[in-house]
Amino acid sequence: MLIATLAPFVLGKSPAARSAAGHGSTFPADFVWGAATSSYQIEGAVDVDGRGKSIWDVFCHSPGRIKNGDTGDVACDHYHRWREDVALLARGSFGAYRFSTAWPRILPAGSGAIEHRGLDFYDRLVDALVAQRIAPWLCLYHWDLPQALQQQGGWLNRDTCRHFADYAQIVARRLGDRVKHWATFNEANVHALFGHGIGTHAPGLTGRSNMLAAMHHQNLAHGLAVAALRAERSDLRLGTIINLQPARPSSQSDEDRRAAERFDAVWNGACLDPLTKGGYPAAIAAEFASLIADGDLAAMRQPIDYLGLNYYSPMYIAQAPQSLFGAWFGAVPAGTPFTAMGWPIDAAGLTEELIRLRERHGDLDIYITENGACFDDLAAADGSVRDEERIAYLRSHLVAAGRTLHAGVRLRGYFVWSLLDNFEWAEGYSRRFGVVRVDFDTQRRTPKSSFAYLAGPARSGL
Questions:
Q1: Catalytic annotation on 261?
Q2: Cα dihedral 342→36→34→344 (10° resolution)
Q3: Which residues pair with 148 in a beta bridge?
Q4: Residue 122, CA distances (Å) to 36, 46, 156, 174, 280 in order
Q5: How far apart are CA 232 and CA 422, in angstroms?
Q6: Is the predicted pLDDT of residue 281 greater than 80, yes or no?
Q7: Of 187, 352, 389, 424, which is the active-site residue?
Q8: What is 3-460's CATH superfamily?
Protein backbone atom coordinates (compact mmCIF):
# COMPACT_ATOMS: atom_id res chain seq x y z
CA MET A 1 0.00 0.00 0.00
CA LEU A 2 3.06 2.29 0.09
CA ILE A 3 1.82 3.92 3.28
CA ALA A 4 5.31 4.74 4.47
CA THR A 5 5.96 7.04 1.52
CA LEU A 6 2.85 9.17 2.04
CA ALA A 7 3.83 11.39 4.96
CA PRO A 8 6.31 13.73 3.22
CA PHE A 9 3.76 15.03 0.73
CA VAL A 10 0.39 14.60 2.36
CA LEU A 11 -0.46 18.24 1.58
CA GLY A 12 0.31 17.74 -2.09
CA LYS A 13 3.24 20.12 -2.41
CA SER A 14 5.05 19.53 -5.68
CA PRO A 15 8.81 20.15 -5.91
CA ALA A 16 8.07 23.28 -7.95
CA ALA A 17 5.65 24.59 -5.35
CA ARG A 18 8.05 23.88 -2.50
CA SER A 19 10.73 25.98 -4.16
CA ALA A 20 8.45 28.73 -5.42
CA ALA A 21 9.03 31.04 -2.46
CA GLY A 22 12.64 31.43 -3.49
CA HIS A 23 11.74 32.59 -7.00
CA GLY A 24 9.48 35.55 -6.39
CA SER A 25 6.21 33.67 -6.73
CA THR A 26 2.92 35.18 -5.60
CA PHE A 27 2.14 31.88 -3.91
CA PRO A 28 3.61 30.46 -0.70
CA ALA A 29 5.92 27.49 -0.66
CA ASP A 30 3.23 25.15 0.68
CA PHE A 31 0.69 26.07 -1.99
CA VAL A 32 -0.87 22.97 -3.60
CA TRP A 33 -0.63 22.71 -7.39
CA GLY A 34 -2.85 20.06 -8.95
CA ALA A 35 -4.86 18.90 -11.93
CA ALA A 36 -8.42 17.59 -11.92
CA THR A 37 -10.56 15.08 -13.82
CA SER A 38 -13.79 13.14 -13.21
CA SER A 39 -14.66 9.49 -13.59
CA TYR A 40 -17.30 9.48 -16.33
CA GLN A 41 -15.46 12.08 -18.37
CA ILE A 42 -12.25 10.07 -18.70
CA GLU A 43 -12.55 6.44 -17.58
CA GLY A 44 -14.51 4.70 -20.33
CA ALA A 45 -14.70 0.93 -19.77
CA VAL A 46 -18.38 1.25 -18.92
CA ASP A 47 -19.03 -2.50 -19.15
CA VAL A 48 -15.75 -3.71 -17.64
CA ASP A 49 -15.16 -5.53 -14.34
CA GLY A 50 -18.75 -5.53 -13.18
CA ARG A 51 -19.43 -1.80 -13.37
CA GLY A 52 -23.12 -0.96 -13.24
CA LYS A 53 -24.79 1.63 -15.42
CA SER A 54 -24.86 5.26 -14.36
CA ILE A 55 -27.42 7.91 -15.20
CA TRP A 56 -24.97 9.29 -17.75
CA ASP A 57 -24.74 5.95 -19.56
CA VAL A 58 -28.50 5.99 -20.02
CA PHE A 59 -28.65 9.70 -20.84
CA CYS A 60 -25.91 9.48 -23.47
CA HIS A 61 -27.63 6.62 -25.24
CA SER A 62 -30.91 8.53 -25.42
CA PRO A 63 -31.16 10.03 -28.94
CA GLY A 64 -30.67 13.77 -29.21
CA ARG A 65 -29.23 14.30 -25.75
CA ILE A 66 -25.52 14.71 -26.56
CA LYS A 67 -23.93 16.66 -29.41
CA ASN A 68 -22.96 14.39 -32.32
CA GLY A 69 -24.39 11.39 -30.47
CA ASP A 70 -21.20 11.10 -28.41
CA THR A 71 -21.05 8.92 -25.29
CA GLY A 72 -18.62 8.29 -22.46
CA ASP A 73 -18.31 4.62 -23.37
CA VAL A 74 -14.59 5.02 -24.15
CA ALA A 75 -13.82 8.66 -23.28
CA CYS A 76 -10.05 8.85 -22.61
CA ASP A 77 -9.84 5.12 -21.82
CA HIS A 78 -8.25 6.11 -18.52
CA TYR A 79 -9.39 2.82 -16.99
CA HIS A 80 -6.76 1.11 -19.13
CA ARG A 81 -4.30 4.00 -19.60
CA TRP A 82 -4.06 5.28 -16.03
CA ARG A 83 -0.33 4.56 -15.82
CA GLU A 84 0.29 6.91 -18.73
CA ASP A 85 -1.87 9.58 -17.13
CA VAL A 86 -0.07 9.32 -13.78
CA ALA A 87 3.20 9.68 -15.68
CA LEU A 88 1.85 12.89 -17.23
CA LEU A 89 1.02 14.26 -13.78
CA ALA A 90 4.57 13.51 -12.65
CA ARG A 91 6.03 15.05 -15.81
CA GLY A 92 4.07 18.24 -15.11
CA SER A 93 5.32 18.34 -11.49
CA PHE A 94 1.77 18.37 -10.19
CA GLY A 95 1.78 17.77 -6.47
CA ALA A 96 -1.86 16.68 -6.28
CA TYR A 97 -4.42 14.96 -8.47
CA ARG A 98 -8.13 15.46 -7.94
CA PHE A 99 -10.17 12.57 -9.36
CA SER A 100 -13.58 11.07 -8.66
CA THR A 101 -14.59 7.52 -7.93
CA ALA A 102 -17.48 6.09 -9.93
CA TRP A 103 -20.21 4.97 -7.57
CA PRO A 104 -21.57 2.35 -10.04
CA ARG A 105 -18.09 0.89 -10.48
CA ILE A 106 -17.93 0.14 -6.76
CA LEU A 107 -21.60 -0.54 -6.00
CA PRO A 108 -23.22 -1.53 -9.30
CA ALA A 109 -26.71 -1.45 -7.77
CA GLY A 110 -25.96 1.69 -5.76
CA SER A 111 -26.05 -0.28 -2.51
CA GLY A 112 -25.62 -3.85 -1.38
CA ALA A 113 -22.96 -6.02 -3.01
CA ILE A 114 -19.53 -4.40 -3.43
CA GLU A 115 -17.70 -4.86 -6.74
CA HIS A 116 -14.16 -5.30 -5.46
CA ARG A 117 -12.66 -5.08 -8.94
CA GLY A 118 -13.82 -1.48 -9.03
CA LEU A 119 -12.15 -0.72 -5.72
CA ASP A 120 -9.04 -2.54 -6.96
CA PHE A 121 -8.80 -0.07 -9.85
CA TYR A 122 -8.77 2.93 -7.55
CA ASP A 123 -6.42 1.14 -5.20
CA ARG A 124 -3.88 0.73 -8.03
CA LEU A 125 -4.34 4.35 -9.09
CA VAL A 126 -3.77 5.65 -5.58
CA ASP A 127 -0.67 3.51 -5.10
CA ALA A 128 0.75 4.82 -8.38
CA LEU A 129 0.11 8.41 -7.34
CA VAL A 130 1.74 7.85 -3.96
CA ALA A 131 4.75 6.26 -5.63
CA GLN A 132 5.17 9.44 -7.71
CA ARG A 133 4.73 11.66 -4.63
CA ILE A 134 1.45 13.03 -5.98
CA ALA A 135 -1.22 13.49 -3.30
CA PRO A 136 -4.54 11.87 -4.25
CA TRP A 137 -7.59 14.11 -3.72
CA LEU A 138 -10.74 12.03 -4.00
CA CYS A 139 -14.22 13.29 -4.88
CA LEU A 140 -16.97 10.77 -4.17
CA TYR A 141 -19.62 12.10 -6.55
CA HIS A 142 -19.15 13.82 -9.90
CA TRP A 143 -22.69 13.36 -11.23
CA ASP A 144 -22.61 9.63 -12.13
CA LEU A 145 -25.38 8.24 -9.91
CA PRO A 146 -25.99 4.49 -10.33
CA GLN A 147 -28.95 4.04 -12.65
CA ALA A 148 -30.35 1.45 -10.24
CA LEU A 149 -30.83 4.21 -7.67
CA GLN A 150 -32.29 6.56 -10.26
CA GLN A 151 -34.97 3.97 -10.90
CA GLN A 152 -35.86 4.30 -7.21
CA GLY A 153 -36.13 8.08 -7.48
CA GLY A 154 -32.49 9.11 -7.45
CA TRP A 155 -31.89 12.43 -5.71
CA LEU A 156 -35.64 12.92 -5.33
CA ASN A 157 -35.64 10.01 -2.87
CA ARG A 158 -34.33 10.63 0.66
CA ASP A 159 -33.08 7.04 0.81
CA THR A 160 -30.34 7.97 -1.66
CA CYS A 161 -28.75 10.10 1.08
CA ARG A 162 -28.26 7.06 3.29
CA HIS A 163 -26.94 4.99 0.38
CA PHE A 164 -24.42 7.74 -0.39
CA ALA A 165 -23.13 7.75 3.19
CA ASP A 166 -22.71 3.97 3.04
CA TYR A 167 -20.82 4.28 -0.25
CA ALA A 168 -18.54 6.95 1.25
CA GLN A 169 -17.67 4.68 4.16
CA ILE A 170 -16.90 1.74 1.86
CA VAL A 171 -14.48 3.80 -0.21
CA ALA A 172 -12.79 5.30 2.85
CA ARG A 173 -12.37 1.88 4.40
CA ARG A 174 -10.36 0.81 1.34
CA LEU A 175 -8.47 3.99 0.44
CA GLY A 176 -8.45 6.16 3.56
CA ASP A 177 -5.04 4.93 4.68
CA ARG A 178 -3.47 6.76 1.73
CA VAL A 179 -6.08 9.29 0.55
CA LYS A 180 -6.29 12.11 3.08
CA HIS A 181 -8.26 14.76 1.17
CA TRP A 182 -11.88 13.94 0.44
CA ALA A 183 -14.71 15.86 -1.19
CA THR A 184 -18.27 14.62 -0.97
CA PHE A 185 -19.79 16.30 -4.03
CA ASN A 186 -18.72 18.13 -7.12
CA GLU A 187 -21.02 21.05 -7.90
CA ALA A 188 -24.27 19.87 -6.36
CA ASN A 189 -25.78 23.18 -7.52
CA VAL A 190 -24.97 22.52 -11.18
CA HIS A 191 -26.10 18.90 -10.99
CA ALA A 192 -29.42 19.92 -9.44
CA LEU A 193 -30.13 22.74 -11.87
CA PHE A 194 -29.04 21.20 -15.16
CA GLY A 195 -29.84 17.58 -14.36
CA HIS A 196 -33.05 17.99 -12.40
CA GLY A 197 -34.36 21.47 -13.26
CA ILE A 198 -33.84 22.11 -16.96
CA GLY A 199 -32.97 18.59 -18.07
CA THR A 200 -29.93 19.21 -20.27
CA HIS A 201 -27.77 16.91 -18.11
CA ALA A 202 -28.46 13.46 -16.72
CA PRO A 203 -30.91 12.28 -15.51
CA GLY A 204 -32.82 14.75 -17.70
CA LEU A 205 -35.52 15.80 -15.23
CA THR A 206 -37.24 19.17 -15.35
CA GLY A 207 -39.15 21.43 -13.00
CA ARG A 208 -38.49 23.56 -9.95
CA SER A 209 -39.76 20.98 -7.45
CA ASN A 210 -37.35 18.36 -8.81
CA MET A 211 -34.45 20.78 -8.64
CA LEU A 212 -35.22 21.80 -5.06
CA ALA A 213 -35.52 18.19 -3.93
CA ALA A 214 -32.24 17.25 -5.60
CA MET A 215 -30.47 20.17 -3.93
CA HIS A 216 -31.85 19.41 -0.49
CA HIS A 217 -31.09 15.71 -0.65
CA GLN A 218 -27.55 16.28 -1.89
CA ASN A 219 -27.01 18.71 0.99
CA LEU A 220 -28.30 16.10 3.41
CA ALA A 221 -26.20 13.37 1.79
CA HIS A 222 -23.12 15.56 2.19
CA GLY A 223 -23.73 15.87 5.92
CA LEU A 224 -24.39 12.17 6.40
CA ALA A 225 -21.30 11.27 4.39
CA VAL A 226 -19.04 13.63 6.35
CA ALA A 227 -20.25 12.02 9.57
CA ALA A 228 -19.69 8.54 8.12
CA LEU A 229 -16.19 9.41 6.92
CA ARG A 230 -15.23 10.85 10.30
CA ALA A 231 -16.56 7.74 12.01
CA GLU A 232 -14.47 5.58 9.69
CA ARG A 233 -11.20 7.54 10.08
CA SER A 234 -10.34 10.56 12.18
CA ASP A 235 -7.34 11.64 10.09
CA LEU A 236 -9.15 12.69 6.93
CA ARG A 237 -9.50 16.26 5.67
CA LEU A 238 -13.08 16.60 4.49
CA GLY A 239 -14.83 19.14 2.31
CA THR A 240 -17.09 19.65 -0.64
CA ILE A 241 -16.81 21.38 -4.02
CA ILE A 242 -19.21 24.02 -5.32
CA ASN A 243 -19.28 26.08 -8.50
CA LEU A 244 -19.45 29.70 -7.33
CA GLN A 245 -19.75 32.72 -9.62
CA PRO A 246 -20.70 36.35 -9.09
CA ALA A 247 -24.29 36.92 -10.24
CA ARG A 248 -24.31 40.36 -11.81
CA PRO A 249 -27.44 42.07 -13.18
CA SER A 250 -27.49 42.08 -16.96
CA SER A 251 -28.70 45.69 -16.98
CA GLN A 252 -29.24 48.58 -14.58
CA SER A 253 -32.96 47.87 -14.27
CA ASP A 254 -34.52 47.04 -10.89
CA GLU A 255 -35.99 43.89 -12.46
CA ASP A 256 -32.59 42.54 -13.46
CA ARG A 257 -31.08 43.52 -10.11
CA ARG A 258 -33.75 41.56 -8.24
CA ALA A 259 -33.36 38.64 -10.66
CA ALA A 260 -29.60 38.57 -10.02
CA GLU A 261 -30.15 38.57 -6.26
CA ARG A 262 -32.55 35.66 -6.57
CA PHE A 263 -30.29 33.69 -8.88
CA ASP A 264 -27.37 34.33 -6.53
CA ALA A 265 -29.38 32.80 -3.68
CA VAL A 266 -30.08 29.69 -5.76
CA TRP A 267 -26.72 29.23 -7.45
CA ASN A 268 -24.30 30.45 -4.81
CA GLY A 269 -26.29 29.91 -1.63
CA ALA A 270 -28.59 26.89 -1.75
CA CYS A 271 -25.80 24.31 -1.68
CA LEU A 272 -23.43 26.22 0.58
CA ASP A 273 -25.38 28.16 3.22
CA PRO A 274 -26.94 25.02 4.79
CA LEU A 275 -23.46 23.52 5.15
CA THR A 276 -21.86 26.51 6.85
CA LYS A 277 -24.78 28.49 8.32
CA GLY A 278 -27.38 25.83 9.00
CA GLY A 279 -30.12 27.20 6.76
CA TYR A 280 -31.11 28.21 3.25
CA PRO A 281 -30.76 31.80 1.98
CA ALA A 282 -33.68 33.95 3.10
CA ALA A 283 -34.75 34.72 -0.47
CA ILE A 284 -35.56 31.06 -1.17
CA ALA A 285 -35.85 29.44 2.27
CA ALA A 286 -39.64 29.12 2.08
CA GLU A 287 -39.39 27.00 -1.05
CA PHE A 288 -37.35 24.36 0.79
CA ALA A 289 -39.58 24.27 3.88
CA SER A 290 -41.66 21.28 2.82
CA LEU A 291 -38.52 19.22 2.15
CA ILE A 292 -36.91 19.73 5.55
CA ALA A 293 -37.46 16.96 8.07
CA ASP A 294 -36.53 17.17 11.75
CA GLY A 295 -32.78 17.04 12.12
CA ASP A 296 -31.96 17.75 8.47
CA LEU A 297 -30.38 21.16 8.98
CA ALA A 298 -28.26 19.94 11.88
CA ALA A 299 -27.14 16.92 9.85
CA MET A 300 -26.08 19.13 6.94
CA ARG A 301 -24.03 21.49 9.07
CA GLN A 302 -21.07 19.24 9.70
CA PRO A 303 -17.69 20.88 10.32
CA ILE A 304 -15.59 20.79 7.16
CA ASP A 305 -11.84 21.18 6.82
CA TYR A 306 -11.87 22.98 3.49
CA LEU A 307 -14.09 24.24 0.70
CA GLY A 308 -13.40 23.55 -2.95
CA LEU A 309 -14.28 26.43 -5.30
CA ASN A 310 -14.82 25.83 -9.01
CA TYR A 311 -14.68 29.08 -10.96
CA TYR A 312 -14.88 29.77 -14.68
CA SER A 313 -16.70 33.07 -15.21
CA PRO A 314 -19.13 35.58 -13.77
CA MET A 315 -22.83 35.29 -14.57
CA TYR A 316 -24.94 38.11 -16.03
CA ILE A 317 -28.54 37.60 -14.98
CA ALA A 318 -31.75 39.05 -16.38
CA GLN A 319 -35.37 38.83 -15.41
CA ALA A 320 -36.88 35.79 -17.15
CA PRO A 321 -40.50 35.13 -16.08
CA GLN A 322 -40.68 31.76 -17.84
CA SER A 323 -37.57 30.32 -16.17
CA LEU A 324 -37.49 28.20 -13.02
CA PHE A 325 -36.81 31.11 -10.69
CA GLY A 326 -37.79 34.11 -12.77
CA ALA A 327 -34.14 34.73 -13.62
CA TRP A 328 -31.75 33.41 -16.24
CA PHE A 329 -28.55 34.24 -18.11
CA GLY A 330 -28.81 37.54 -19.95
CA ALA A 331 -26.75 39.92 -22.05
CA VAL A 332 -23.05 40.32 -21.33
CA PRO A 333 -21.35 43.73 -21.45
CA ALA A 334 -20.14 44.75 -24.90
CA GLY A 335 -16.50 43.99 -25.55
CA THR A 336 -16.33 41.05 -23.13
CA PRO A 337 -14.11 38.22 -24.46
CA PHE A 338 -15.44 34.66 -24.45
CA THR A 339 -14.12 31.12 -24.35
CA ALA A 340 -15.19 28.57 -26.95
CA MET A 341 -17.95 27.53 -24.53
CA GLY A 342 -19.42 31.02 -24.85
CA TRP A 343 -18.48 31.83 -21.25
CA PRO A 344 -17.34 35.40 -20.49
CA ILE A 345 -13.71 35.80 -19.44
CA ASP A 346 -13.30 37.95 -16.35
CA ALA A 347 -10.64 37.00 -13.83
CA ALA A 348 -11.78 39.77 -11.49
CA GLY A 349 -14.81 37.62 -10.75
CA LEU A 350 -12.53 35.06 -9.11
CA THR A 351 -11.07 37.66 -6.77
CA GLU A 352 -14.57 38.91 -6.03
CA GLU A 353 -15.90 35.45 -5.21
CA LEU A 354 -12.95 34.45 -3.02
CA ILE A 355 -13.22 37.59 -0.93
CA ARG A 356 -16.99 37.24 -0.67
CA LEU A 357 -16.55 33.65 0.54
CA ARG A 358 -14.43 34.86 3.44
CA GLU A 359 -16.88 37.62 4.28
CA ARG A 360 -19.96 35.36 4.20
CA HIS A 361 -18.60 32.07 5.48
CA GLY A 362 -15.60 32.88 7.63
CA ASP A 363 -11.97 31.87 7.45
CA LEU A 364 -12.28 28.55 5.66
CA ASP A 365 -9.32 26.94 3.97
CA ILE A 366 -10.18 27.31 0.29
CA TYR A 367 -8.83 25.45 -2.71
CA ILE A 368 -9.60 26.38 -6.28
CA THR A 369 -10.56 22.85 -7.32
CA GLU A 370 -11.39 23.72 -10.93
CA ASN A 371 -10.35 26.59 -13.13
CA GLY A 372 -9.62 26.49 -16.82
CA ALA A 373 -10.92 27.32 -20.24
CA CYS A 374 -12.17 25.72 -23.43
CA PHE A 375 -10.69 26.90 -26.70
CA ASP A 376 -10.60 25.45 -30.20
CA ASP A 377 -7.13 24.00 -29.90
CA LEU A 378 -5.55 23.14 -33.21
CA ALA A 379 -2.63 20.77 -33.54
CA ALA A 380 0.24 21.99 -35.71
CA ALA A 381 1.76 19.86 -38.45
CA ASP A 382 4.26 18.47 -35.95
CA GLY A 383 1.46 17.56 -33.54
CA SER A 384 2.20 20.33 -31.02
CA VAL A 385 -0.57 22.48 -29.58
CA ARG A 386 0.26 26.11 -28.82
CA ASP A 387 -2.75 27.15 -26.77
CA GLU A 388 -1.75 30.72 -26.02
CA GLU A 389 -5.35 31.76 -25.33
CA ARG A 390 -5.55 29.22 -22.52
CA ILE A 391 -2.23 30.38 -21.09
CA ALA A 392 -3.51 33.97 -21.05
CA TYR A 393 -6.67 32.82 -19.29
CA LEU A 394 -4.74 30.82 -16.69
CA ARG A 395 -2.24 33.62 -16.08
CA SER A 396 -4.93 36.22 -15.48
CA HIS A 397 -6.82 33.96 -13.10
CA LEU A 398 -3.72 33.00 -11.14
CA VAL A 399 -2.88 36.68 -10.75
CA ALA A 400 -6.46 37.29 -9.57
CA ALA A 401 -6.20 34.41 -7.10
CA GLY A 402 -2.86 35.65 -5.82
CA ARG A 403 -4.33 39.05 -5.00
CA THR A 404 -6.69 37.47 -2.51
CA LEU A 405 -3.80 36.17 -0.42
CA HIS A 406 -2.86 39.74 0.39
CA ALA A 407 -6.51 40.35 1.34
CA GLY A 408 -6.35 37.60 3.94
CA VAL A 409 -8.14 34.82 2.07
CA ARG A 410 -6.88 31.41 3.16
CA LEU A 411 -6.34 30.16 -0.37
CA ARG A 412 -4.32 26.96 -0.14
CA GLY A 413 -4.16 25.50 -3.63
CA TYR A 414 -5.12 25.48 -7.31
CA PHE A 415 -6.26 22.61 -9.56
CA VAL A 416 -6.47 23.19 -13.28
CA TRP A 417 -9.44 21.82 -15.19
CA SER A 418 -8.54 19.64 -16.80
CA LEU A 419 -5.54 17.37 -17.10
CA LEU A 420 -6.99 15.84 -20.26
CA ASP A 421 -9.34 16.79 -23.04
CA ASN A 422 -12.35 14.66 -22.21
CA PHE A 423 -16.05 13.96 -22.59
CA GLU A 424 -17.59 17.36 -21.94
CA TRP A 425 -21.10 16.30 -20.91
CA ALA A 426 -23.81 17.52 -23.30
CA GLU A 427 -21.11 18.93 -25.60
CA GLY A 428 -19.58 15.49 -26.12
CA TYR A 429 -16.07 15.65 -27.58
CA SER A 430 -16.58 18.96 -29.34
CA ARG A 431 -15.08 21.00 -26.50
CA ARG A 432 -11.53 20.81 -25.15
CA PHE A 433 -10.49 21.96 -21.67
CA GLY A 434 -7.34 19.87 -21.20
CA VAL A 435 -3.76 20.98 -20.80
CA VAL A 436 -3.05 17.66 -22.51
CA ARG A 437 -4.59 17.07 -25.92
CA VAL A 438 -6.26 13.70 -26.47
CA ASP A 439 -6.75 12.32 -29.96
CA PHE A 440 -9.97 10.43 -29.37
CA ASP A 441 -9.37 8.16 -32.37
CA THR A 442 -5.94 6.96 -31.27
CA GLN A 443 -5.97 7.98 -27.55
CA ARG A 444 -2.61 9.65 -28.06
CA ARG A 445 -1.82 12.21 -25.35
CA THR A 446 0.07 15.40 -26.31
CA PRO A 447 0.92 18.01 -23.66
CA LYS A 448 -0.04 21.50 -24.82
CA SER A 449 1.89 24.70 -24.21
CA SER A 450 -0.34 25.34 -21.19
CA PHE A 451 0.94 22.14 -19.63
CA ALA A 452 4.49 23.48 -19.73
CA TYR A 453 3.30 26.88 -18.49
CA LEU A 454 1.72 25.37 -15.37
CA ALA A 455 4.77 23.23 -14.75
CA GLY A 456 7.09 26.23 -14.70
CA PRO A 457 6.43 29.94 -15.15
CA ALA A 458 3.06 29.94 -13.36
CA ARG A 459 4.77 28.76 -10.19
CA SER A 460 8.10 30.52 -10.33
CA GLY A 461 6.66 34.01 -10.74
CA LEU A 462 3.69 35.74 -12.37
A1: no
A2: 10
A3: none
A4: 15, 15, 29, 9, 35
A5: 33
A6: yes
A7: 187
A8: Glycosidases (3.20.20.80)
